[in-house]
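Long-time lurker, first post. I've been practising inverse folding by hand and with some scripts of my own, and I keep getting stuck on stretches where the structure tokens seem ambiguous. Below is the full token string for one chain I'm working on. Before anyone asks, I'm not after the true native sequence, just a reasonable design that respects the backbone. If someone could post their per-position residues I'd love to compare against what I wrote down in my notebook.
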């Protein structure tokens, strides 16, 4: 079976880049990305391709090449479903904020709405692909809805979780370590559906990297991969605190440990804490699922990864207060970086939000500079925490357009995102314009201690 028309529901950080790459690599397949958010769709269609709603290195060039040829962005969800032989569901699956499982379970209401819409609209057989990250066994619920509320057409459900990381999305999509496709491989029709999706990826991904499994293994592998990755960050962050007490240096420890080929060197960079839309949400989901099966030890084991991460963010902020003679009340503190990592404008669960909130609770005046995050987004993030009124957030937190505006007249500077440009700031100028003693807190191990101390900074870095 050859796929001719793909529809992707959800034009977000995953749906947009993933479909842009599929369209670029498969010129004979029509790809339509749909969303209920008309502003987002309008931005994807913006004449100036630099205005697409997601910043990812290399993405605008891919969109430029395919858009209007075989890549389309639309708000007409019904029409795209009707036309498609394969439908990706790539909507958000945030942590529930209400009811049973509040603060833990994944909220599947957007997924269910998609399933009901697909069932209502479809007039011929469809392959439905779970691209969103979902609790294990969600495909069962999807199938139930599709089979019971549909028009008697046949559905095959595949799980095809996405492993891209933000900031490197295009590269990750072009050269994935593996593509995971879970399906009903026991039956001929299930196998045929899996093969249809394999053929799409085989346009550019070597066959040996296309991994097929049963649906449940695929769903659970995604949660497992994120849990393992986050666990490595929490593990090295736990060690960073011990390093600070003992004179060891966390960078040296992670290098020494990472050179053991059984451990490997990636994801051992100590930081102010991991952020992003996935790690916390997916681990909480894993914890919730484990508890729901009565596996309390399994749940507690994984929950510790989150607890350690919360501790790391808090401890960094507390260090700033303590170092500034135990009070930051009325003091200007410059925060460099707001995104949860470099090369993205995404701020979801960014450590910067929590550090800022902590400092504002201590009555600091914060000034934020980030090269890609909008002012509006920064205030939205602060308001979302509900720690104080939005008027107060606007009065006490300022957002500026250059790093030097942020650092001028400040008591302390904290690096919260590892943007490359922060390495190359004129640190002498920063120092000269700050109040003295000039405190510099490196939450990303981005800067060299020796050169900063030579300028005169009081320098603190995570893990040394
Ligand atoms: P996102 O919030 O950026 O995008 C989701 C989009 O879906 C939104 O634009 C929203 O308007 C749209 N949407 C919601 N319900 C809809 C409906 N009924 N019809 C049409 N559109 C609808 O989310 P994201 O970051 O792209 O994540 C999507 C999924 O992919 C999540 O399950 C996430 O866990 C997973 N994932 C994300 C990443 C990542 O790096 N962001 C990586 C791997 C997997
Ligand atoms: C993650 C997974 O890597 C990706 O496979 C999955 O599809 C989505 O979730 P993402 O959240 O986009 O991707 O970025 P990632 O590079 O994993 O970083 C997550 C957070 O961990 C960031 O805040 C980053 O700064 C932090 N991190 C990462 C560290 O603090 N140290 C590290 O060594 C690596």
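-- Answer (accepted) --
I ran through it position by position. Result:
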């Amino acid at each position: 079976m050859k796929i001719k028309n793909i529809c992707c529901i959800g034009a977000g950080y995953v749906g947009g880049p993933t479909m842009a790459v599929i369209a670029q690599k498969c010129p004979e397949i029509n790809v339509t990305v749909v969303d209920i958010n008309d502003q987002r769709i309008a931005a994807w269609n913006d004449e100036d391709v630099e205005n697409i709603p997601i910043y990812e290195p290399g993405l605008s060039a891919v969109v430029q090449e395919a858009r209007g040829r075989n890549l389309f962005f639309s708000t007409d969800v019904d029409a795209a479903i009707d036309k498609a032989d394969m439908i990706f569901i790539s909507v958000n699956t945030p942590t529930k904020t209400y009811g049973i499982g509040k603060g833990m379970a994944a909220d599947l209401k957007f997924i269910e709405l998609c399933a009901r819409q697909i069932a209502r609209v479809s007039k011929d057989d469809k392959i439905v692909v779970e691209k969103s990250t979902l609790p294990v066994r969600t495909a069962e619920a999807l199938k139930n809805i599709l089979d019971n509320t549909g028009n008697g057409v046949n559905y095959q459900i595949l799980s095809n979780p996405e492993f891209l990381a933000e900031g490197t999305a295009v590269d990750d999509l072009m050269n994935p370590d593996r593509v995971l496709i879970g399906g009903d491989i026991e039956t001929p029709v299930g196998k045929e559906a899996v093969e249809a999706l394999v053929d799409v990826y085989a346009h550019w991904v070597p066959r040996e990297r296309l991994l097929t499994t049963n649906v449940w293994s695929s769903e659970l592998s995604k949660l497992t991969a994120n849990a393992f990755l986050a666990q490595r960050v929490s593990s090295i962050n736990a060690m960073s605190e011990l390093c600070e007490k003992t004179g060891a240096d966390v960078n040296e420890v992670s290098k020494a440990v990472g050179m053991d080929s059984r451990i490997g060197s990636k994801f051992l960079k100590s930081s102010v804490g991991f952020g992003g839309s996935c790690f916390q949400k997916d681990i909480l989901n894993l914890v919730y699922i484990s508890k729901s099966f009565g596996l309390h030890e399994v749940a507690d084991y994984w929950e510790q990864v989150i607890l350690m991460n919360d501790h790391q963010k808090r401890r960094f902020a507390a260090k700033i207060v303590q170092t500034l003679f135990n009070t930051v009340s009325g003091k200007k503190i410059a925060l460099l970086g707001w995104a949860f990592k470099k090369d993205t404008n995404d701020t979801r669960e960014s450590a910067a939000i929590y550090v800022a909130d902590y400092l504002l609770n201590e009555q600091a005046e914060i000034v934020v500079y980030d090269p890609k995050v909008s002012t509006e987004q920064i205030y939205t993030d602060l308001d979302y925490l509900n720690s104080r009124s939005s008027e107060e957030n606007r009065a006490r937190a300022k957002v500026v357009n250059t790093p030097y505006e942020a650092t001028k007249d400040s008591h302390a500077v904290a690096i919260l995102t590892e943007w490359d440009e922060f390495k190359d700031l004129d640190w002498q100028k920063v120092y000269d314009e700050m109040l003295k003693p000039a405190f510099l807190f490196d939450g990303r191990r981005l800067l060299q201690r020796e050169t900063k101390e030579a300028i005169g900074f009081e320098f603190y870095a995570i893990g040394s």
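A couple of notes from the structure itself: The pocket of uridine-5'-diphosphate-xylopyranose (ligand 2) is lined by residues 162-166, 226, 229, 233, 267-269, 271, 274-276, 278-279, 340-341 (CB under 6 Å). DSSP finds 19 helices and 14 strands in the chain. Happy to go over any region you disagree with.
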